[in-house]
Amino acid sequence: MKSFSKLFGLKKFLIPLVSAFGGLTFGLHTTQVVLAAPIESRQKQIVVVDAGHGGPDPGAIRGQLLEKDVNLNIALNVAHMLRKDGIQVCLTRSDDNDLANSYDEKRRRRHRADLQERMRLIRSESPDAVVSIHCNWSRNSSAHGAIVLFRHKGMEGEHLAEDMVESLHREGIKADSSRSSRSLYVLKHTKVPCVLIEVGFLSNSTEAKALGDHGYQSKLASAIESGVKEYLNAKDSKSPIGKFNMVVE
Ligand SMILES: [Zn+2]
Question: Which of 88, 92, 217, 237 could make a disulfide contact with 50, Cβ separation 3.0–4.6 Å?
């Protein structure tokens, strides 16, 4: 008991000392010592999780299943998981409302106002990564699988997309990454690393059934969470202070 108090006293002394010399962070939650990945020691990493559509804009519809609800469930799950990892998360929406003002009544104008407000939020956060979540639709009913879209080849968004695809594969989910040929607002106007994930096709009956299932939604969320973490860790290890970061729990 005495030696434990001594150790605890030493720890109290070491926290400010070591933190000052390279960003080492200590916390004593369990008796087990765990060396965690670099990212978990950095409080300042911020991720914006954007659930597509909302409010009067349902996105794609398949029977009772609305894209906006699928997107929101996955986004809330991702946010919860990332927060548990110690990452700061900004959700563009956390309920069934879009971000347009009530006076933006005309559908087209409202949609634009909604997107502009999402962009304003993203800019104000200066996040390390942005993940926008949507569901896909195709006239070809056999089309299925997730598609992770990024804006420019060779830029950070592509690295984030690659990490996301690998993570989806590990969960057994068919996924590809692709440069967006469409002029998607969020990708086009975001300067920070950003991907738009089409998590699956509502036009495919099997996949639509899965997308409406809470278990599958959490599986997708878990893959997205680890894709983001891997991307941030890789980015962190390239930074000059990254290699000194460590968490002891
Ligand atoms: Zn959508």
Answer: 92
Report the separation in Å between the CA atom of 59 and the middle of ligand 1, taken as the mean of its atom positions: 5
67 Cα: distance to centroid of ligand 1 (angstroms)? 7
Q: What is the CATH number of the domain that holds 73?
A: 3.40.630.40
Distance 65 CA to ligand 1 centre (A): 13
- Buried-exposed string 138-156: b where 16+ CB fall within 10 A, e elsewhere: eeeeeebbbbbbbbeeeeb
Q: Is the pTM of this model over 0.85?
A: no
Mark whether 92 and 16 lie in a shared domain.
no
One-letter amino acid at 101 equals: N
Residue 247: inside a domain: no
* Residue 49, C-beta contacts closer than 8 angstroms, at least 6 positions apart: 75, 78, 79, 82, 89, 90, 91, 92, 131, 133
- Cα 133 to averaged position of ligand 1 atoms, centre (Å): 8
Number of domains making up the chain: 2
Q: Please indicate, yes or no, if residue 131 is contained in any of the structural domains.
A: yes
d(CA 9, ligand 1 centre) in Å: 54
User: Distance, CA 136 to ligand 1 centroid (Å)?
Assistant: 7
13 and 58 co-located in one domain:
no
Q: Which residue has the tokens 């009956």?
A: 205
CA of 3 to the centre of ligand 1 (A): 58
Could you read off the pLDDT of 88-138 as tens digits, one per residue? 999 999 999 989 876 666 777 888 899 999 999 999 999 999 999 999 999
Nearest-angstrom CA–CA distance, 190 and 180: 13
Q: Which domain holds residue 13?
A: 2-32
